[in-house]
């Protein structure tokens, strides 16, 4: 029996970002940014894109990152439960992650300062990383997190930064 696949609906701008994640070849983007006003669909698109990637990339891990656990829980975990109630069966509270029927995992990680970033992002591997409200992180913190964006045998994984206009994210390609 094939694993259950949750159908997803994307807004046009969310779909455009999602298409970048599936583009392959030498010109494929691996660092993608999306920004805009509050209530613009950034977090919802991020959630759906992460779920889509995990459903279509069996046995891969992805991470959704915010500054604090309450922000992650309120803006992502609880929203997954609300939007896709069947995901409640996949939730592992103690490990703060969903384990999908196809073996893929969605991890929820947070770090309140550079010291926590250094501790938590030294070693783990994620096929995709999505940092919500990336303007809350320093450039050094974002670079440290980016080091976890790798996967054995994968030619491409992606990193998505979402941000609101109130902050500035400065990242140089190739770092």
Feature tags:
7 strands; about 180 residues; 5 helices; 7-stranded mixed beta sheet; about 20% strand; alpha/beta
Question: What is the fold's blueprint, element by element?
Answer:
Elements: H1 12-22, E1 31-35, H2 42-56, E2 61-66, H3 69-83, E3 91-92, E4 97-99, E5 105-110, H4 114-120, E6 128-131, H5 139-146, E7 158-163
Parallel strand pairs: 1-7, 2-5, 2-6, 6-7
Antiparallel strand pairs: 3-4, 4-5
Helix pairs in contact: 1-2
Bin the strand percentage: 15-25%
Backbone structural class: alpha/beta
The proportion of residues forming helix, as a percent range, comes to 25-40%
How many domains would you count in the coordinates? 1
Mean pLDDT: 87
Tally of DSSP helical segments: 5
* N-end to C-end Cα span: 43 Å
Name the strands of the widest sheet in spatial order: 1-7-6-2-5-4-3
CATH superfamily membership: P-loop containing nucleotide triphosphate hydrolases
CATH topology: Rossmann fold
Write the CATH architecture name: 3-Layer(aba) Sandwich
Tell me about the largest β-sheet.
Answer: 7 strands, mixed
